[in-house]
Amino acid sequence: MFSRRFAAFFRFNRHVAQKYGSFIAAGFSNRFSMKVVTLLPLVVLRSADCRQKEDQEVKRPVRRRTMSKVKYETSLEGKAQFYLNAMKVRWDQLHKVPGLFSYQLEKSPQSRKIPGYWGFYAELNSDRNLKRRRPQTIESLNPTFKHMMFNFNKVDAQEVILTIDDAHGSPEVQMIINKSPITKYHTLICPEVGKNHTQRITRDALQFCITFMRNIDDKDMRMGYNSPGALASVNHLHFHLLHMPQDLYIDQVPLDELAGGYVYRLSRRAPTEGICIVFNENDSDEQVAEKVDQLYMLAMWMCKNNMPHNLFLTQDRRPGKSGNVKVFVFARSEYCVNKDLAEFNVGFCELAGYIPLPDAEKMENLTELQVLFRIRTITGNAPKAVYEQITGMVEGQEHYLWDQPLTI
After folding, report:
1. 96: alpha, beta or left? (left if phi > 0; alpha if psi -120 to 50)
2. Would you say residue 162 has pLDDT above 70?
3. Whose CA is closest to 246, among 223, 218, 225, 220?
4. pTM score of the predicted model
5. 15 pLDDT band (50/70/90 cuts)?
6. For the chain, what is the mean pLDDT?
7. Alpha-helical runs (H) found in 277-379
8. What angle do CA 157, 223, 155 make, to 5 degrees?
9. What's the CA gap between 68 and 62, in Å, rounded?
């Protein structure tokens, strides 16, 4: 048995045979040499076997990075998962503190998948309707910051889950509990709270959110943004981070390419209209920066043209697309001055297919046709102008389109 393996070993590696042939031919002069020669073929055969197995493995694509290991470990890219884990632990602790949240979420809330082709998901949350802070009226898409109104400088220190101020290259961000949560781990992402940004997207905030979503290992965490006039309830810059494990229609919605190989519109067969910008797992830093720039410019264009909008960020759940992040942008022609707490509102959750409702009867009776009618009513023709604008940006016509008056 030994001789067969020994022969196979020398056939596999001629270099080893040449190197050690004279040594073996000379004979085993002592115990040490005998041990070495006896064990050597087995060691190299083991190495050869491991090498063959490695060659057979399917290699996963590796995200290209230009930063050093030390810089990566101190950046948001390297620390995002740590922040997410810390947030979850602290959120669970705070949710048990009496009186800190406006209400306690039920562990198994009543829910229903609305019958129909798209399968909108509805969930009962009557406490949010009754016990939440009264939403603010935000007068325009270019609002002024009002110090006397509620803002995140005024939250209790215990409501701040954690402050991210040690991520190289990222702005300071506070993760603050949503006192009236929609889902478990519902947290507010609040960039540079002390600078009093109004509820208009900044490029740094957008970069932070996209980088965070690209570097966490949890496809059930989603992120969203409501602009003024699109269900924003506090005029102080914030995004929402929520736990949504359900498979929503938005996860598998068909997409039609618009421009650049990464900008899509929801298919004409889809229940809603909007665009989707895909951040691929292997995008370089320069590619990510370019896409963030285009998203930011689009948001500013929508603000300039008084077009309320919602964003929904999610990791790609489509087969074979793991590692990508999709950013959906929904524009609307109807400006919502404030939230009607008794009716079916439309924010980023609803546009993505997740519909929290205040009473069981409404949840049981809501139809897909009613959902689609409400969404299309507030959306109007605004998405068509957005399709033209983002296409022009990607194809290098942004200055021409920016200066054109918007007609809806």
Report:
1. alpha
2. yes
3. 220
4. 0.82
5. very low
6. 85
7. 285-304, 348-352, 360-365, 368-379
8. 15
9. 15
Q: Does domain 70-395 have CATH number 3.40.720.10?
A: no
Q: CA-CA distance, 160 to 153, in Å (whole number)? A: 10
Q: Return the percentage of the chain with pLDDT > 70, whole number.
A: 79
**Hey, what amino acid is at 215?**
N
CA distance 12 to 352: 57
CA-CA distance, 163 to 245, in Å (whole number)?
26
In the sheet that holds 263-266, the strands lie side by side as: 160-164, 173-177, 187-191, 239-243, 221-226, 309-315, 325-331, 275-279, 263-266, 255-259
Tell me what pLDDT residue 2 has: 45
User: What residue spans of 264-358 are helical by DSSP H?
Assistant: 285-304, 348-352
Which one-letter amino acid corresponds to residue 374?
Answer: R
Task: Give the pLDDT of residue 34.
Answer: 43
Q: Tell me the mean pLDDT in the region 203-214.
A: 98
pLDDT tens-digit series, residues 21-75 = 444 444 444 444 444 444 444 444 444 444 444 444 334 444 555 677 878 889 9
Give the helix/strand (H/E) hosting 188.
strand 187-191
* Integer Cα distance of 228 and 235 in angstroms: 8
Q: In what order do the strands lie in the sheet with 121-124?
A: 111-113, 121-124, 354-357
Q: What share of the chain is helix, strand, coil (3-state, %, to 5)?
A: 40, 15, 45
Q: How far apart are CA 275 and CA 257, in angstroms?
A: 9
Contacts of 292 (CB under 8 A, 6+ apart): 203, 206, 207, 210
Query: CA 161 → CA 100, 218, 242, 265, distances in Å?
Result: 12, 19, 14, 36
